């Protein structure tokens, strides 16, 4: 049984923020905030797995009231170093059941985080929880990677996704359970703990886009848009990720 609280601890929270670089770069955050602001249509938003506020803070600065749900105490503490509860209220709990309020125009779950839920049932419950937060016609936005099973060599259960100085990312697959374990290997002179290398592992359950759409339908959503990225590029068979916008069906 994976203890997510231990997985996303103080060390993970401290390493998460990379101001101005990677997922925190203006080239990534600018289009993300633009899309989410437009989808909120002047209403309020709730972020599932808000983390340290990478997206929530600039979205709030753009004029959208934002609330959040976050399981990790360490992530919330890091967020609180940046903004107070009065500006971005956060409920500590699991995104499959924790409640941050209701009548939101927008719910969103970015950076592959729905895959942190390791069973199909939990992932469906996440959709159902999003529906409980939204007004009729509200949107639920999910950013997720496309499983790269075509890159698995015959007879092998893993792929090297990133190989660069000081860092390797190796993904190993359990295709029966749709599980991936990402092995993050940091090495080189930048390590200050006296070790030659440091390995961290994060488990995920990958979801095919069609399976995600079925989960949405079970919770009362319909697919409204799907792009390859936040720049709204066309989603194709070669896309490695997608941004999917689901609309809660009015009843």
UniProtKB/TrEMBL annotation:
Keyword ATP-binding set for record: no
Keywords associated with the record: Methyltransferase, Transferase
Entry's Gene Ontology molecular function annotations: methyltransferase activity
Pfam families from the UniProt entry: Methyltransf_25
Gene3D superfamilies according to UniProt: Vaccinia Virus protein VP39 (3.40.50.150)
CDD domains: AdoMet_MTases
One biological process term in Gene Ontology: methylation
Domain Methyltransferase, residue spans: 46-138
InterPro entries: Methyltransf_25, SAM-dependent_MTases_sf
Name of the featured protein: Methyltransferase
Species, as recorded: Paenarthrobacter aurescens (strain TC1)
């Amino acid at each position: 049984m994976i203890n997510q609280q231990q997985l996303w601890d103080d060390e993970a929270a401290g390493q998460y923020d990379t101001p101005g670089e990677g997922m925190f770069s203006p080239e990534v955050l600018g289009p993300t905030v633009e899309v989410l602001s437009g989808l909120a249509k002047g209403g309020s938003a709730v972020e599932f797995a808000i983390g340290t506020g990478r997206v929530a803070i600039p979205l709030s600065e753009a004029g959208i009231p934002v609330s959040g749900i976050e399981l990790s105490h360490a992530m919330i503490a890091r967020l609180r170093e940046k903004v107070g509860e009065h500006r971005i209220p956060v409920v500590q709990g699991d995104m499959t059941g924790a409640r941050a309020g209701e009548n939101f125009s927008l719910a969103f779950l970015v950076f592959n985080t729905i895959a942190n839920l390791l069973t199909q049932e939990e992932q469906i419950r996440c959709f159902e929880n999003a529906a409980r937060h939204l007004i009729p016609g509200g949107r639920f936005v999910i950013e997720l990677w496309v499983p790269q099973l075509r890159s698995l060599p015959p007879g092998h259960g893993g792929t090297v996704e990133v190989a660069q100085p000081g860092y390797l990312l190796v993904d190993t697959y359990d295709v029966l359970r749709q599980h991936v374990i990402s092995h993050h290997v940091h090495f080189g002179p930048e390590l200050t703990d006296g070790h030659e290398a440091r390995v961290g592992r994060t488990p995920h359950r990958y979801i095919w886009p069609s399976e995600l759409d079925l989960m949405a339908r079970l919770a009362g959503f319909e697919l409204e848009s799907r792009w390859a990225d936040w720049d709204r590029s066309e989603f194709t068979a070669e896309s490695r990720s997608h941004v999917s916008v689901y609309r809660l069906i009015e009843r």
